[in-house]
Amino acid sequence: MSREKWNTLLIAGFMMTLTASIILHPKASLEASQAGLDVWWSIVFPSLLPFFIVSELLVGFGIVRFAGVMLEPVMRPLFKVPGAGGFVWAMGIASGFPAGAKLTAMLRKENQLTAIEAERLVSFTNCSNPLFIFAAVSVGFFNNPLLGLLLAASHYLSNLAVGVAMRFHGRRDDERMYRGKKHSFPSLREAFEALHATRLENKKPVGKMLGDAVLGSVQTLLVIGGFIILFSVLNRILDLSGVLGGAAEVLNILFVQLHLPAELTKPLLAGLFEITQGTMQAGKADAPLIYQAVIASFILGFSGLSVQAQVASILADTDIRFLPFFLARVLQGFTAALLTWLLFKPFYLNRGGAAEAYLPAEGSTAADWGGIITEAGPVITLFFLLLYTWLYWRRSAIYK
């Protein structure tokens, strides 16, 4: 039997097994689905949508091309990507997963990046946003606001390290492409001319551009919501079927060799599938805080198969390969875990942190922000879903 037939057989078998498991455990599947939907409804959608819409408008108006020309002397030597990558990196940090992949794919379609440059860029521009690390993880899951700085420092420093390491990806292609070329420091005039040329090439009216940005952003977020729900159910099914328990027993052997608490094996396995569930379980585990933080940092760096599936679906419409992104996630996971171990004393203990987690004071800023997002999130989501429905209906009526 050929390899393709084996792959078909394995995929079909997995899908039938998953379907049967959902039928056999309807209550648990419903609860997991509701949990995933709640995360998407109240946090993911309202936090990502503004960045997605603004990003598409910035690309359309040529502002990204302007930033690209100005940032070329920084991004090219450091990461071997065009200056536009600086904009993608900033937006990826500000908005979180998978904004970096969406913007990278967008720039690749605009031919502002080569395939190799896009593979480098997407590998380090997908990060957790600061609000998720400080509010959701440190306050919500660990009940420890002081832990946020440690997790954020480890996460973004490891992200930077991955970006520098990935500059060596595809070096032979660089030698052929840039042989004999000289890069000079750009002027503000050159940057403005690039912005103006891009604006003239895009002949869409402003209203059409705004409508397209809303439609495209909501469609992407609907796909992301589906992945979050699917992997939430999958994680729950694997737990009920004993697969996670068996894998945890095997992982215990490695944890014993590394002197890590066995209580963190299940949170780690859960985090391999879904980042929210993994970091939440790590915060609740009965283990020393330093080990909890190390595992949470690894999960944040690896980002979970759920986020990786979201990125894969976005990259599928381009010639950007997924494997370099996956390898970069593994590298960032281990780098972030090591940095958390090394920085635990200067970034946490020396700032007055205790070795055990504690409950934050009532009315703390991080807690207030987390509450505001949770309460306002569903209203924002519902409003834009209704707007999306209206725009989609209007566009369908026009083109009939």
UniProtKB/TrEMBL annotation:
It comes from the Bacteria. The keyword Membrane applies. The chain crosses the membrane at residues 6-25, 37-64, 121-142, 213-234, 289-315, 322-344, 369-393. Residues 43-135 form the Nucleoside transporter/FeoB GTPase Gate domain. Keywords: Membrane, Transmembrane, Transmembrane helix. The keyword Transmembrane helix applies. Pfam families: Gate. This is Sporulation integral membrane protein YlbJ. It comes from Metabacillus mangrovi. The gene is ylbJ.
